[in-house]
Amino acid sequence: MDGRFYPGWHLFGGLFGIALFALFIGALVWALLRLTSSHDHHAVGPTAPPPGPWAPRDDALNVARLRYARGELDREQYFRVVEDLTGVPRPTDPAPPYPAPPVSPAPPPIGEDPEPKAPEA
Questions:
Q1: What's the total number of domains in the chain?
Q2: In this structure, is residue 105 part of a structural domain?
């Protein structure tokens, strides 16, 4: 080398080293998390039930839900099946609809007085 200083190459080398070190740390953290996770990764797939409170607990109830969603069962038939399978009584009449929101009065036309004045005597 002739002793010249090339600042661009030095900066690139430093950034490359930092990026390589960050990549190594990230891979290490990923590997540790993967090895220590307690989740069952084998149950994931199209046959696994979805997690959460909405997961079907019974295949017969799931079939009834699907048939009701497709329109094969009407409301009364669906609730009769649910009542037979779970013992939960069917709901009585559906809840009344929410009352309509109050209607605000129309604004007065532009240029008109909102309240008519009484004639002065």
A1: 2
A2: no
